[in-house]
């Protein structure tokens, strides 16, 4: 009788095969678990999360715009660097004017990109034009870098007849099919698993196209972020996850958003190649994105880039951040570590820019923005008929009836509605 | 989780005669009563005639008709991919058996266990222009994906001004009572999605219907949710065309014409109301018009209203809870329409035990509760005729 039988004298007989021990043939005791590839250890020790000395921050320029390690200089042409600078400053100018226009009641809402222009432009420049972009809402510089005209930025904010989105969404919810920038939606992090799906389709297509997905450190707390990371890794997708860690999710500082070492430290947990970069250093952002893109496509695996930066502006026009942070803190970033200033110092150092050009460009860019702005102001809003189209690809009978009912209602009671602002 | 499989397994073992499992402790239990255990909550699947219009047919049950539709799709559409939990080995309900071997592991693949990821990923595949067929293992587990479905998939085209869409996404999920599923393997969540313009919601009653409707959903340029009555996966068998064929969405079907009352249902309940129609004719002399709604959203309001003009009475039967169930939408639309279009008549609707009561099916008494709450022929036909049209 085996040992097992002796222990169970009073219970029903159990089939003998269950009681007999399996004979192991391996000489060493190596773990056989399917779930992990690891050795045994016989000392009880918990792994301490390392948040005092976290993942280091890759940078190319110091705060004065000097290249620290010449090997890391991306060696971009003057023309390219000027495009970086002009895009960042034009964005900044457009932000100032549109923020002000909301304050004056001309548009309903706005979100600025102050302080994060480097994350947009450095990453956008590293992509191919046909790489698909999924954003969150603070990536207008990516679209601007790809040549989206001021008219269309304004049209979307005003929701006028020129808006390719047909005036349906709140301001800053841009989208452009031709420039491969998927239309923004308000719910946070929903774009993350979607971006992974698109990357999977690109992989099957053998298109040599990557997908980049932007999100903030706050959105990274959403379940959709976890879902996206895990799917990208298990399904081996050519995707760049670009996290803009700007210190705040509205009023919530990072200390209340997570306890680990930011977002970059989560990557290895999913089996994802990860890096943390100085988001205010446009060359560092460029280098990291470029290399990640190259490898994501070549190796069909995801890359996670956490760009450390600071949100200089309020969360939106509905926010007053003096309620939860000091003016001194904001000023520090505005004056001491701003992506635009650092690039300007770099360009000045190279002899690629000077005060004259700065003055002239400021004037010119402001004029361009004001012209687009005045145009947008004058246009009508889209026809009310557009309330009903595109809900489905074809309009079902119920919606047709509702559309007709609205038309009848407006014929009778149109005087109570500001119809003069809308296209017929 | 192979819930249906477990149930069948257990029945088979206990029903067998002397053997190893009749020995010892098992032998001291009273034997199972012979014959079927379930009485009231039965339904009889009523197959349709073999179609002649679509070429060669083959005997298929519901899950096989789904496999056939998926096979046709993968064969004709090189961008099509199928994914979800456990689809690679064939799926917990065998709907994807053989497809991975036939079409490759890049086209039929498992995802991690994460419904919000499955649907979000599916949306992205569709946005990139490929055909995405996502499987949610049970409709009861679709809720983590509710945000992706309602806030994203449904609104993709509208919010982008038609610059982007995820029309090539279809989500499939097993649906409805199965007898022992209890709270979390029995739900019929169509009412939650009926409130969401931008998606389509479709529920077939049979293998023939399932294949044609699923193919239409996949072809349709809007994101679709396709609920498959799990109790029919094995139980429903018909001769189904091997080649693809398409049954139009948003078109209800009058299965039987009648003059006294309109009965409306979808999925499994269609077979219940068919039986009710027969009982009503035999026992009460009542002539029922039977309608399979098929598409919940957008639903065929015209067909139902037209029928109620004729009969003057309406009974809707669904498994889902009564309050806020889709029957409310149908009855309120019919009433609104009747008042507007037929002002000289009115419809008096009474409480009928047609719909599932407002409770989640209790775990401890799963089978008994499903018997009691599952709308059944005997309960539905216990309703007696009600006055309808006013004179004139």
UniProtKB/TrEMBL annotation, chain A:
**Which InterPro entries does the UniProt entry name for this protein?**
Alpha-ketoacid_DH_E1_comp, DH_E1, THDP-binding
Cofactor(s) demanded: thiamine diphosphate
Entry keywords, A to Z: Metal-binding, Mitochondrion, Oxidoreductase, Potassium, Thiamine pyrophosphate, Transit peptide
Q: Which reaction does it catalyse?
A: N(6)-[(R)-lipoyl]-L-lysyl-[protein] + 3-methyl-2-oxobutanoate + H(+) = N(6)-[(R)-S(8)-2-methylpropanoyldihydrolipoyl]-L-lysyl-[protein] + CO2
GO BP terms: namely: branched-chain alpha-keto acid decarboxylation to branched-chain acyl-CoA
Q: How does it assemble?
A: Heterotetramer of 2 alpha/BCKDHA and 2 beta chains/BCKDHB that forms the branched-chain alpha-keto acid decarboxylase (E1) component of the BCKD complex. The branched-chain alpha-ketoacid dehydrogenase is a large complex composed of three major building blocks E1, E2 and E3. It is organized around E2, a 24-meric cubic core composed of DBT, to which are associated 6 to 12 copies of E1, and approximately 6 copies of the dehydrogenase E3, a DLD dimer. Interacts with PPM1K.
User: What is this protein's function?
Assistant: Together with BCKDHB forms the heterotetrameric E1 subunit of the mitochondrial branched-chain alpha-ketoacid dehydrogenase (BCKD) complex. The BCKD complex catalyzes the multi-step oxidative decarboxylation of alpha-ketoacids derived from the branched-chain amino-acids valine, leucine and isoleucine producing CO2 and acyl-CoA which is subsequently utilized to produce energy. The E1 subunit catalyzes the first step with the decarboxylation of the alpha-ketoacid forming an enzyme-product intermediate. The branched-chain alpha-keto dehydrogenase complex catalyzes the overall conversion of alpha-keto acids to acyl-CoA and CO(2). It contains multiple copies of three enzymatic components: branched-chain alpha-keto acid decarboxylase (E1), lipoamide acyltransferase (E2) and lipoamide dehydrogenase (E3).
Q: What is this protein called?
A: 2-oxoisovalerate dehydrogenase subunit alpha
Which species is listed as the source? Chrysemys picta bellii (Western painted turtle)
* Source lineage: Eukaryota, Metazoa, Chordata, Craniata, Vertebrata
